[in-house]
């Protein structure tokens, strides 16, 4: 069996195993691919609505061929690798860490949990998720599985395409919620992020917008850990039991990729 198929099969077995209460993946019946549900977690890339991170190149789409004139339709795309919904590779922030073409397919297919911090983020756009927040979530939903992507639902996905998404202050500083440094260090130290887990968010970054040193990103982006950013439709991602699958072009020495990111939901998970 080709390597990519083996990775996918192993991942799908993990999906089914995670959905079974008290049963191991080895005891699970064969995975039925037609019983998996996919939900899109990506915004549509549209220059008219895409919020671009300050300093990144402008996003442009130009029609360069039409069916009446050329017999086919084609657009020319110009954008940074982290435009719109995207995933980032460890080498995006850390010299010597893997870049996009050095990751394995399994690095982009991970179990996921969703932590709803919309109320706190609405009250404080600079809110930084704490260790206590994570422990309170685990008390209700159980331990975060090892090597998971921990997704923050801040409510920023509803602000996409408006000035409220970057939420830039008069001083030019972004005001967006994210993880506190101690919270991410705890996720790493306790093995919850592991070697190939990561973070996800509906904002520009796992960092709070006011941290212009990207301290959280530098911690997350190590080993084979990734960050999923500017996620959409997080209402459709279950709190537990789903996986995330990140696609997109793999550029040579890429910092990541503009992506179509799916939530993969086993039968019975909603």
UniProtKB/TrEMBL annotation:
SUPFAM superfamilies in the cross-refs: Putative cyclase
Superkingdom per UniProt: Bacteria
PROSITE patterns: TAT
InterPro entries according to UniProt: KFase/CYL, KFase_sf, TAT_signal
Signal peptide: 1-27
Coiled coil: none
Keyword Signal annotated: yes
E.C. no: 3.5.-.-
One Pfam family this sequence matches: Cyclase
Keyword field contains Hydrolase: yes
GO molecular function: hydrolase activity
Keywords (A to Z) from UniProt: Hydrolase, Signal
PANTHER family found in the cross-reference section: BLR6059 PROTEIN, KYNURENINE FORMAMIDASE-LIKE PROTEIN
Protein name: Cyclase family protein
Organism for this UniProt entry: Amycolatopsis melonis
Organism phylogeny: Bacteria, Bacillati, Actinomycetota, Actinomycetes, Pseudonocardiales
């Amino acid at each position: 069996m080709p390597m990519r198929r083996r990775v996918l099969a192993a991942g799908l077995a993990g999906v089914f195993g995670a959905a079974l209460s008290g049963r191991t993946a080895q005891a699970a019946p064969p995975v039925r691919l037609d019983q998996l549900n996919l939900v899109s977690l990506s915004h549509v890339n549209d220059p008219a609505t895409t919020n671009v991170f300050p300093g990144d190149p402008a996003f442009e789409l130009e029609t360069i061929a039409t069916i009446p004139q050329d017999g086919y339709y084609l657009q020319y795309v110009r954008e940074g690798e982290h435009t719109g919904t995207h995933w980032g590779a460890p080498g995006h922030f850390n010299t010597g860490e893997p870049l996009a073409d050095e990751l394995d397919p399994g690095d982009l297919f991970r179990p996921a949990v969703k932590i709803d911090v919309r109320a706190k983020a609405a009250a404080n756009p600079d809110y930084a998720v704490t260790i206590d927040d994570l422990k309170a979530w685990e008390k209700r939903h159980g331990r975060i599985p090892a090597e998971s992507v921990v997704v923050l639902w801040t409510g920023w996905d509803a602000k996409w395409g408006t000035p409220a998404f970057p939420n830039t202050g008069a001083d030019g500083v972004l005001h967006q919620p994210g993880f506190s440094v101690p919270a991410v260090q705890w996720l790493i130290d306790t093995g919850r992020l592991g070697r190939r887990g990561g973070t996800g968010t509906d904002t520009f970054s796992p960092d709070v917008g006011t941290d212009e040193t990207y301290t959280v990103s530098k911690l997350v982006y190590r080993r084979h850990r990734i960050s999923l950013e500017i996620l959409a439709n997080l209402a459709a991602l279950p709190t537990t039991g789903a996986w995330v699958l990140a696609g997109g072009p793999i550029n040579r020495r890429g910092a990541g990729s503009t992506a179509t990111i799916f939530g993969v939901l086993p039968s019975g998970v909603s």
